[in-house]
């Protein structure tokens, strides 16, 4: 049953007249694996015996389920719920792969084979147009393959929210490949393309002398030191502004002229933020210091934000009073639609073809 929590996502002003995209999109993420190395799997947490999973499903059952639903990562399973939180079932021994945004969100089966959201097998991660990112047989290298046989080598990559532009060596930035125009675009060092929206791409950038920024390819800063200073309020360290915010943007999920952002802070703690109308608003708390750790899941087709508030953690994360999956309309209190039983989970808006 849905439960309302007194957490406001209200923002001032309107949307500035910018219409949301026809299909909201979701960005990529990289999370630490059990051995401390980088992993592309959306979290596989231990000990989920006390959560509701519903009946076991196979990939062939996906065609019979709603076209839009929410996928929750659980131990070796993907639990599928509808937008009201009703459990539809689970895919045993599956995980989510989100390396190439919403268009490239795929399922990883128990045999380590990739499947599309319609259940069909895939050779790689789909990109916009006729392209796909395909791993080498050794798994140590990647190439962008076009249907006409044109191949482009790429390493340590991440795709933007529309699965159109792929940033090479994304943590350092420097260049991005447009799979539609088939052209390389130079980036400022430290930036990766989060949303290849026309006419001005949105970038997430790291900076040596100031907090990480959200800016456009043309250089317009959408969220920077002023927004961080306002978020911190009286706790802002005025004597050390250059290094006040340690971390980087792990995800930016666009919806028109606003975003859900996932911030990776000290000791890899995760925090969720709404970025809208020139302000940063924490998900799940009235202030930055009081907000629980959170991860973002995307937007529904009607513009509602989906995110997960985290449970207990051995790291630096702050647990929510009621961890689980939340859905929120802007200006309204979020609704808890799925209780995670105190655990930390990851979540994605799931749209089948």
The CATH topology label is Methanol Dehydrogenase, Chain A
**Whole-Å distance between the termini?**
28 Å
Beta-strand proportion:
35-45%
Which outline best applies? Answer: globular
- Helix percentage: under 10%
Counting helices, strands and paired strands, the structural category is: mainly beta
What is the residue-averaged pLDDT? 80
**Number of helical elements:** 1
Secondary-structure blueprint of this entry?
Layout: E1 3-4, E2 31-32, E3 38-39, E4 68-74, E5 77-81, E6 87-92, E7 95-97, E8 106-108, E9 114-115, E10 121-122, E11 125-126, E12 131-135, E13 142-146, E14 151-154, E15 158-159, E16 165-168, E17 175-178, E18 183-186, E19 191-195, E20 202-205, E21 213-216, E22 221-223, H1 225-232, E23 248-255, E24 258-264, E25 270-276, E26 279-282, E27 294-299, E28 305-309, E29 324-328, E30 335-339, E31 347-351
Antiparallel strand pairs: 1-30, 2-3, 4-5, 4-31, 5-6, 7-8, 8-9, 9-10, 11-12, 12-13, 13-14, 15-16, 16-17, 17-18, 19-20, 20-21, 21-22, 23-24, 24-25, 25-26, 27-28, 28-29, 29-30
Can you give a write-up of this model?
There is one protein chain. With 353 residues, the chain is an all-beta fold. Helix content is 2%, strand content 37%. The chain has one helix spanning 225-232, and strands spanning 3-4, 31-32, 38-39, 68-74, 77-81, 87-92, 95-97, 106-108, 114-115, 121-122, 125-126, 131-135, 142-146, 151-154, 158-159, 165-168, 175-178, 183-186, 191-195, 202-205, 213-216, 221-223, 248-255, 258-264, 270-276, 279-282, 294-299, 305-309, 324-328, 335-339, 347-351. It has a five-stranded antiparallel β-sheet with strand order 1-30-29-28-27, with no helix packed on it. A four-stranded antiparallel β-sheet has the order 6-5-4-31, with no helix packed on it. A four-stranded antiparallel β-sheet has the order 7-8-9-10, with no helix packed on it. 43% of the residues are buried. Residues 3-7 and 10-49 have low confidence and may be disordered.
